[in-house]
Sequence to fold (370 residues):
Amino acid sequence: MGGFSTVLVVLLCVATCRFAFAITDGPLENGNFEEAPKSSDLNGTVVLKSNAIPHWQTSGFVEYIKAGQKQGDMLLVVPEGFAAVRLGNEASIKQLVNVSVGSLYAITFSAARTCAQEEELNVSVKPDFGVMPIQTLYSSSGWDLYAWAFRAVYDVAEILLHNPGEEEDPACGPLVDSIGIRVLNPPKATKFNLLKNADFEEGAYMFPNATTGVLIPPNIEDDNSALPAWMVESLKAVKYIDAAHFSVPHGQRAVELVGGRESAIAQVARTIAGKTYELTFAVGDASNSCEGSMIVEAFAGRDTLKVPYESKGTGGYKRAVLRFVAVSNRTRVMFLSTYYHMRSDDYASLCGPVVDDTKLLSIRNPRKLV
Fold:
């Protein structure tokens, strides 16, 4: 009887219990939804059971979309592999993962809007949440990769993506695919650089085959930055790019300012009032057909420098220096793009100048600038 009871408990748990997966940097379990539901758990594209999609729990009107499917005359594009999910009115998907309390993590995911004009995606790990407006398309494919960061409060994190919309058509809602995670190591300032994560090497997970870069949302959408030590102080996102798919001035990562003056990154550094400092940085283009006259504006406290850069869209960079005298013990450093830019090969993808390899140091014996 004892053996029968044990088997019964195990069978019941398989059907109803929620398991937390061990975390590693990379895709979540079935994060690209290539493991499909059983045909008996689908009515056309509609998912019938909450545990039908392997490794995920669903709620509400969720559809399992395969590459090549259409909605009326509109082709539903899948960014990776052959499947994605669509979240209808008030629908959600979630997965449990084991995390370390106090550590900072970044979730990376692909999202695209379908038939609603002002679609949003609520991303949450209790007690943190962020509402991502996805109506702005940054790439011509219709899909964008986003990153959202959270600090673990519990040792098991419930990663939940939810469509808060209520459309006349209950199926209208964002498509979601390619969900991954990465633990973010806290960067530190050094005696060689007062800026933290100055070369942007520490940041959100990037899928190896993703060619679009990852959008880091503004701080109004994300209390924790997926680009540690930096704040996105703007209305639009900035793009986090890698050397595998873009031209990067230094190392393996950089930031592309894709939203004009609405796309800015900033950091507050420790300084000593009255001392002279030099802020050095690289400005370039990502070799993504982003052509034209670019200007990056650099700010350090009350001082400003405009750095022009003529881009041919094929890669390259120049270095710039902003010398200033600190007026307080905290100096805010910020970079933004003066102009908006579109890629010349499709005129539908937002792009902009690249910033990388930033450095802030005090100058012991500054010579007066002529």
Remarks:
- The radius of gyration is 23 Å.
- The CA atoms of residues 35 and 286 lie 35 Å apart.
